[in-house]
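User: I'm putting together a small comparison set for a docking exercise, and I want a reference complex before I start. The sequence is below, and the ligand is 1HE. Could you produce the 3D structure with the ligand included, as structure tokens?
Assistant: Of course. I'll restate your input first, then give the structure tokens for the complex.
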Amino acid sequence: MNYNHNPIIQKAFMTHPDIHFELRGDEQEVAVIRLTRSAKRNALNDGLILALRDLFEKMPACVRAAVIDGDGPHFCAGLDLSELKERDAGQGLHHSRMWHAALERVQFGPVPVIAALHGAVVGGGLELASACHIRVADESTFYALPEGSRGIFVGGGGAVRIPKLIGAARMTDMMLTGRVYNAQDGEKVGFAQYLVPEGQAFDKAFELAVRVAQNAPLTNYALMHALPRIAEQPADQGFFTEAMMAAIAQSAPEAKSRLADFLEGRAAKVRKQD
Ligand code: 1HE
């Protein structure tokens, strides 16, 4: 894939041999994280999962949004099955918890993350995509949970996150029957919020990331950290938490200046999209 038409790469870092990490945008505000293990369809071995965790823990302070995608014909083939060796129950528990810790850093980390999807988004690859805040899929994307046919179960948070996207009944069907969703149906059921022509997922995700990076940081923080918790709370508690978050967000100097910009005619109006 050719990514060269995108804005200038400001800085590229070596974090792991199978991850390309770079900062883009005028102020290095967008981090691009690319899985580069295409020979193995970006299958996630333990080293890659730990590297993703570390990367989100040590995100440079200038970053305001991130895009994650995969090199080669597929986004991600999930867990590296060659590492699925004999584990006793305790080791299996810790392995799953390691995935949880890493994907929690993605979901509840420092910045909103936009997944640019293409080809296979399966098993742990779907779990990784589900931990992101926005998913952009191109027409080549397909979604599956082959764990059912491999005699295992999801272990990277999929049992919690995937039903929130598509409902428990659809996830049960996928795992029981091996059902594969194509890109169009995947968007309809809620896997992706955007569907774009083949080869355009990264560009769309990057465009969205630049837009997201312009939001007040506290608004993005509220959407990442408060909204999912409010959604889990009983209504009475949710309303209260919402009020607390709203009060904190509106008191920030950035909110005051943005409101003044609108009231004094300097800010863009909301306009109907084409
Ligand atoms: C792999 C993996 C993998 C490919 N682990 N090596 N995930 C799965 O069950 C999906 C398994 N993979 C596939 O179904 C297919 O590989 C794909 C549909 C993703 C891609 O097909 P294709 O034809 O483009 O590639 P390929 O020829 O199948 O694979 C190319 C190489 O990648 C090949 O290795 P090679 O040395 O023979 O070239 C494959 O063995 C290797 N490869 N996928 C290891 N997953 C936290 S729990 C999560 C639990 C799960 O994720 S379970 C679901 C695992």
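DSSP finds eleven helices and ten strands in the chain. The beta strands are 9-16, 19-24, 30-35, 65-70, 113-117, 120-122, 134-138, 142-144, 181-182, 194-196.
User: Thanks, that's exactly what I needed.
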